[in-house]
Structures are given as C-alpha cells and as structure tokens.
Amino acid sequence: MPAPGTAESATVEDHSPPSIPWRPVLALAGALGVVLLALSTRYGYHRDELYFRVAGQNLDWGYPDQPPLLPLLTRAITELFGDALFVQRLPAALLSAAGVVVAALTARELGGHRRAQLLTAGAYTVCPFVSATGHAFYTATLDLFVSTALVWLAVRWVRTRDQRLLLGIGVVAAVAVNVKYLAVFLLAALVAGLVISGPRDFARRPMLLAGALIAGAAAVPGLLWQARHGWPQLEMADQIAAEGDFGGRPGFIPFQLLLTGVVLSWLWIYGLWRLFRSRELAPYRFLGYGYLLLTALFLVTAGKPYYLAGLWAALWAAGAVEVERRGAPRGAGWTITVPAYVFTGISTVLLTLPVYPVGMLADTPQPVINADTAETVGWPRFAAEVARVHRALPAAERARATIVTSNYGEAGALDRYGPELGLPRAYSGHNGYWYFGRPADTGGPTIFIGPEGDAGLRRFWTDVTAAGRIDNGVDLDNEEQGKSVWVCRGQRMPWTALWPQLRHLS
Fold first, then answer.
1. DSSP codes joined into one string, 409-434
2. How far is Cα 366 from Cα 472, in angstroms, rounded to an integer?
3. pTM for this one?
4. What are residue 427's DSSP bridge partners?
5. What is the pLDDT of residues 111-168, one digit of tens each?
6. Which residue among 7, 206, 321, 405 has the highest number of C-beta atoms inside a 10 angstrom radius?
7. Distance CA 304, CA 251 (A)
8. Could you report the per-residue pLDDT of 183-205, keeping only the tens digit for each?
9. Beta strand 446-450 pairing with 402-405
C-alpha cells in the first residue's frame, strides 16, 4: 500500500491540461530569438565554433572531447547554407527560442495555467545561461535544449502514462548522448528519482525497453570510438574537474544562482522545495530527487554548475505552479512582477551578449562574468600576425614552413582566415585537433603559437626565436592575448616521434 503523500498514492487529475497562452509565449520566444539573431554577428567566432568547423571537415564517430553530432550538424549547415557567421549561429537562436516554448509546456504538464506558464517561459527567456549559450552554436547550446525537452517528456509521461512518450524519450535520449555523454547521468537521475518516489510502473512498460534500445544503439558508435582510442573522454573529464572553473566545489551552488539570474533564482529554489512538500506535485517528486542526486554527483566529481541546466525549466515550472496556486512566499512578491523580469532581462543582455563597442569591452564587467565573450574577439588580428611572421620567412623556408598552435581555437581561426592570407594548414595537439593529422616532415621551420618559452620549445628544436606577439588591439585579456609567435628551426626528431608529445586535453 503506497504511503500517503507519495507519488504512488497521489493521482494526476484525469482531464485535459490547461490551455496554452500561445500569443504571449511565442512573443517571449520570438523576443529572445530576435535579440540573439540581431547580435549574432557582433565580435566574432567563439573558439569552439572554429573547432567544430574543422571537426566537421574531419567527420568521425567520436572525438576525445565530443560525441559526433555537433561537428556533423556544423558540417551540414556549412554545406547547405554557407559559412557565414550568421548562418552558423541561426540554429542557436532557434533552439533557445524553442526552449522558451518547452519551458511553458513543462509548466502546463505540471498543471500550470496562464500565469504559471508565463512565469516559467519568462524565467527561461531572461536566464543568463540561456542567452550566453544562445549567442553561439556549441555543445552547451544543443545540450540545454535537448535536456530540457527530455525532462518535459518525462513529466508529460507521468501525467498521461502514454507509452509512446517512453519511445519518444528514447529517441531524444539518442540525440542527447550524441551531443554530450553527460546526458547519461541526467537519464540515470530521472530513473533513480522515479524509483525512489514513483510512479514506478514505468519499469513495466514495453515501450521503455524499446526506447532504451534506441538510445543504447545510438551511443554504440561513439563508445566504440572511445574504446579504440583508449577512452580519452575519461581523461578529458579529469582535466575539466582539475581546471576548477566556476569556483570549483565552493562555487557550485552560488554560480547556479548567477547562471539562472540572481533576482529570479528563488523561483527554481522554491520549486525544488515545493516538489517535496506539495501534494499536487507529488507525482513529479522524481524531479526533485533527480536534481539532488545530480548535485551530489557533480559536487563529488567537481562538475560544472550548468550540468544541471536541463532541470532548471522544470524547477521554474514547479515554483511557478505553486505561486499560481498559493501565491508567492512572503517577501518574494516583487520578484514575480514584470519589473523583476525586465530588470533580469536587461542585466542578462548587458552581462552576456555583445552589446558594447568592442573597444570598450575590456572596461566592462562582461569578460569577467562571461569569459566566453572575450574568446570571440581578435581572431582576424591573430591570423594576420601569424601571416606576417610567415611572410617574413625567406622564400625557401616559407614554402616548407609548418604552423602549429597551442589550442584548437587558434588552429581553427587559421583554418578560417588563413587561406586568404596565404597561410598553409595549421596543426594543433589540442583535443580532437591532434587526431586530424600531424605535419609532414618538410625539413622547414615551424611557426609555433603558444605561451611556451624558448626553453620548453628547445626540447624539440635547436633554434627558437620569438618573431611576433598576439595583440587583439583592444587590450582585452583573453587566452590568446600576449602569446608569442615563435619560429623554430633544427627539429630534433621527426613528426612521428614529436607529435605524440604535443597531444594534450583541456
């Protein structure tokens, strides 16, 4: 006999869900999409976008830091629509706008009417992390949308018990595991939450097995690639944990408040609390357990706070539904008013999107709060400086010169801008770029871009000379600013022996 107040004892009301206020929901989604598209070509490519351009030209079943889907999509976009930055970023804006709709639908599945759906859709629209990932098309962009959709389908299944949704979850999970392997942990947390709190009858549904087989089959090619190459993704995970981004473990919770918008972050916290207290939300209590389990896991493994982003829409929705039913908690009334959403939206734009003249960017707080912005500035000047060093070589050396960079963004930038500057192909030992091929033994000099001093490079070359310096021209402190451009001669070993020593993950 199920215990009172559990998901097994609670019932989901057996009637049609509330209607959807399509006009305001689509207006919010459209507003976000328009803002992202209007600003999409300011500054320049993000280093990850430059990387995925080249990864798309070197398609494989896996990469040391990625499943195969995003490079494949980038390649398809380029082949079908061209290589313009606006075109490359169009999917990011569309996915972010679509996420607003999915957030509203999640509130609807939880029993939310117009107010709850708009509170949820509005929180998603003005969320700093949504805007930041919606500006560029990289892993977090696609992962956020797919994970949010996955949670919505799980919530909808709990309400309807429609077996076809279990098959749909399997299909979406198949996409998710080919975007980011961490999707497995979200799936496991949702299943664990259902086992803990119910409803547990999902395990007896035939469509569950079918969905699991679809998701598992979709993951096999990537897992085989990882196995053939010594599981570099595990080494990559260790490196990410060691970097301590977002303040490490102490910053895990505080940064979630920043990433979801400090003023409105109370809404998802309230939703998490009410999932464990509200009888009406008892069937969906698995969401709360899933969030707590993932939080514990990522705190132990030094994961990043945005790894939980797929659950945020559901937590906002739970909070919004309870606000609609019971009113806001004491002291929180102002934060559910229009001015609070407007304030959060404006601050999100100012802190995450390229709205400042590039020459002023270094004097704003944005590069500190959203470091990805700084990584979109200076790539054409970077390529021009490398080209200047290349042109300065004697003609005989220039024809045989090799270019090697310290990270995939730099190599990707030279792939994008280098051909029109007369540069040869660039190589890098960083992440997936190492697998794209090593230089040929031409006997010529190597132009190396990186922070390594001449002492470090002399392990591989007898003659190392500083020939240039990277300067983005706006005094912006990003990963490339101030790096040296070295000309290295007298290679001590062939590339077959040297190349494995340049491999690194981060």
1. HHHHHHHHHSGGGT---EEE-BGGGG
2. 17
3. 0.93
4. 404
5. 999 999 999 999 999 999 999 999 999 999 999 999 999 999 999 999 999 999 999 9
6. 321
7. 9
8. 999 999 999 999 999 888 887 88
9. parallel
